[in-house]
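in:
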């Protein structure tokens, strides 16, 4: 008894030959210009036939997936991104390719070359995507030039994971302003970036009205938008080893000539803040430690912000495991993890816990219980903004000065450290600022740095109201 297996989409031809023939989805037929994906099969039976059948099924799926991209998706896809996708699809087909016959006349036999030849023949025979065919036969061919769209896609995929909604929306807004002025990001190669291009864009931003207002964007808003845009470009240049080949004209955007305005685009948000007066800090403490406080987490967060000088997202993003209470020098570890990002490499640090700040950390750990995050209630994308807004409502009861905000506590800590005579290096270690030279960054061990930082923090706390 002979077992006959009839596979779907395989047609029997004369002379024992076989053909793989599968109809494309109705909605893709017009787009592809053909109704069927069909290829004459080389193998006729056995394991090679089954392998070739499986590989043709993968080729069909790849064609359908590529053709199913929406017009909106394709509109923003750069040529470099299309080429990268074609290479990935080609590699998948090569890994599954089989069913070819070895040419015994060849002195050297390369299975990958033969696999590529077979897959390419199948795609060509079916009238498939020319770019996929090229990726199969010329995988090392020159890739299309990287564009601003590639830079944005790369930055969003790699560096904006865990970023706040404000940062994500901010970069997207700046890119839309660019598109309005220069056209689609995918049409602007990174090699076209010049100083004159950046200067024209700055002047465009200066003439752009703020949302819902008749006056143009403020210098501070422009500075913030250009900073995000510059980081996006710099990260891409670094990742693709393009230093010295591609120029980032936005890297020193404050030195751009900006029409009739000052040569400096504007202060950053952090620079446009003042330390909180002692009486305001005392009033906030009384308010947050009072019996009517409905959200104890806010009180603990305020005490940690006040006593460490950390950024809001650094405190709110702490995991319980980041709070080292049993260490010789109790501290919190500010570092990257899956739940949040860190502003810069210098921001990764150990921040000492002393005085009331240590007590607040102990209470926070106790309240967290078995939760992974120290402040589980605010451990979501918009959590830091929600905390900031809630604390600002209370702060505005004691000061109407617009330069007084929650972030001002960081400026307070900087002042305490400076008045206490703490050296600049130790101050930067606590606040997470760039230390400058490599020697300064790498000198000394972790325990030594933490001991020095703790000593500096104790001196600063003696000056707190």
């Amino acid at each position: 008894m002979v077992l006959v297996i009839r596979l779907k989409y395989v047609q029997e031809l004369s002379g024992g030959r076989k053909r793989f023939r599968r109809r494309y989805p109705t909605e893709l037929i017009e787009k592809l210009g053909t109704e069927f994906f069909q290829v004459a099969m080389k193998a006729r039976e056995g394991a090679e036939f089954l392998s070739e059948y499986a590989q043709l099924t993968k080729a069909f799926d790849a064609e359908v997936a590529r053709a199913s991209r929406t017009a909106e998706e394709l509109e923003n896809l750069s040529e470099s991104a299309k080429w990268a996708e074609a290479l990935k699809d080609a590699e998948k087909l090569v890994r599954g390719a089989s069913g070819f016959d070895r040419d015994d006349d060849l002195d050297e036999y390369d299975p990958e070359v033969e696999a590529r030849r077979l897959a390419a023949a199948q795609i060509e025979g079916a009238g498939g995507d020319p770019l996929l065919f090229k990726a199969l036969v010329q995988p090392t061919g020159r890739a299309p030039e990287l564009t601003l769209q590639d830079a944005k896609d790369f930055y969003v995929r790699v560096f904006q994971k865990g970023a706040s909604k404000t940062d994500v929306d901010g970069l997207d807004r700046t890119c839309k302003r660019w598109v309005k002025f220069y056209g689609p990001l995918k049409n602007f190669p990174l090699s076209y970036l010049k100083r004159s291009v950046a200067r024209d864009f700055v002047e465009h931003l200066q003439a752009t009205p703020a949302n819902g207002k008749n006056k143009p964007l403020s210098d501070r808003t422009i500075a913030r938008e250009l900073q995000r845009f510059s980081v996006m470009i710099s990260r891409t240049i670094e990742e693709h080893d393009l230093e010295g080949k591609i120029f980032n004209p936005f890297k020193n955007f404050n030195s751009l000539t900006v029409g009739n305005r000052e040569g400096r685009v504007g202060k950053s948000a952090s620079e446009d803040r003042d330390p909180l007066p002692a009486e305001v800090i005392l009033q906030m403490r009384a308010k947050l430690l009072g019996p009517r406080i409905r959200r104890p987490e806010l009180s603990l967060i305020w005490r940690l912000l006040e006593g460490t000088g950390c950024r809001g997202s650094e405190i709110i993003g702490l995991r319980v495991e980041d709070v080292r209470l049993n260490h010789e020098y109790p501290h919190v570890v500010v570092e990257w993890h899956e739940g949040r990002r860190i502003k810069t490499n210098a921001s990764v640090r150990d921040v000492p816990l002393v005085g009331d700040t240590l007590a607040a950390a102990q209470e926070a750990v106790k309240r967290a219980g078995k939760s992974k995050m120290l402040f589980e209630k605010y451990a979501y994308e918009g959590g830091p903004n929600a905390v900031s807004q809630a604390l600002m409502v209370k702060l505005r009861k004691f000061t109407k000065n617009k330069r007084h905000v929650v972030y001002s506590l960081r400026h307070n800590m900087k002042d305490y450290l400076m008045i206490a005579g703490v050296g600049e290096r130790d101050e930067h270690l606590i606040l997470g600022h760039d230390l400058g030279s490599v020697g300064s960054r790498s000198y000394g061990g972790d325990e030594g740095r933490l001991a020095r930082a703790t000593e500096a923090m104790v001196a600063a706390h003696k000056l707190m109201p």
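note: The radius of gyration is 30 Å.
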